[in-house]
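@channel sequence for tomorrow's demo:
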Amino acid sequence: MTSPRGTFARLMTLGLALAVVATAFISTSAQAQQPERRRNLLDMLFGERQPTYVPPQNVQRPRETKTRKNTSGSVTTINTRPQSTRAVAAPPPPPKLDNAKTVLVLGDFVASSLGDGLKTAFEDSPGVVVENRANGSSGLVRDDFYDWPGQLPALVSDVKPSVVVIQIGANDRQQLVTPTGRLDFRTDPWFAAYGDRVARLASVAAETRVPVIWVGLPAFRPQNMTADALRLNTIYRSSIEKVNGEFVDIWEGFVDQEGRFIVTGSDINGQPVRLRGNDGIGFTGPGKRKLAFYVEKSVRRYLGDMTSPDLVRLDASNLPELVTLSPSENKAIVTTPPIDLFDPELDGADELLGGTVPASSTFPTPRDQLVQNGRLPDPPVGRVDYVKRAGEVAPTTSSAPASATP
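structure tokens (generated this afternoon):
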């Protein structure tokens, strides 16, 4: 017969064996998911108490979905991942009319940016064509490179514009050569000689009998260049106004409230955008459009109705279809002669309203009583301003109870 002590020892041995087998099984299954590490005695007997977390690698991110429950009770799963959107091509601008009016833009690189902005401004106007003939490196100082007073009459004769827009001077901050010698920039002789050249160009433009708009220079990032632009704008304004031309000042559009140069400012819609290039001299797309914004109003005034984007030329191809009736249907038509709206017989009378003065009434009107007696007639009984006189009996109604009388 086995003693109790021997039975207890065998049970303990069996328990330890089962613990070792279970520990080996758990370790084998966890080995496939976790990196192998050194085990101690407690791990072999009781297993790992706190397994180490290993983040998954190269796991594809599930697609984001959103569940929405319909009113009928069914559930609909909607994919919320942003899908690639393709830019929708803008419709092409309408073709220009054969009799469209032309805007001729002349000047330097600033005028070239202005011409691009005017093209954008009148892109949807079939009655307006912008001809940009600016020369980016030109000016009024180096007339040996490009002579604007000599070239302007030929350009006007070739383009036949309705309006001439001039913007020049950004390249003229340099030494000026005259028959008497060289003149240094920022000296009084230089400004006097330069003013003569500006006046000559303005006179040549006025002789073409075409409206002339002279656009001033904007501010630039170099401070000395901005100061020079202010001085040159005074010369441009005085010269063009002497020949009855128009000067357009764009200075406020490219400086802040304190008059300092800005790179970022408001566009024509009031939104903050970048207006100038990295060099602080050139213009971005919104900057070109803002240049044109100041000139656009004056150009539209000279061109008139041709600037309307809804202008359509009617010809045989787009006339509305005329409906014609057959001869049998024409016989059934009853024509009505035209009726004068002021015909007194329309209302069955012989005279228009107010044609005769009604006979004066025997009772004077309240106005007559006020004029003659100096007082208005007594108000009718029952009105709020009526005052009962002494000895007068107030009217009573049969429907009111006797107890209601005060």
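heads up for whoever presents: The first strand starts at residue 65 and ends at 69.
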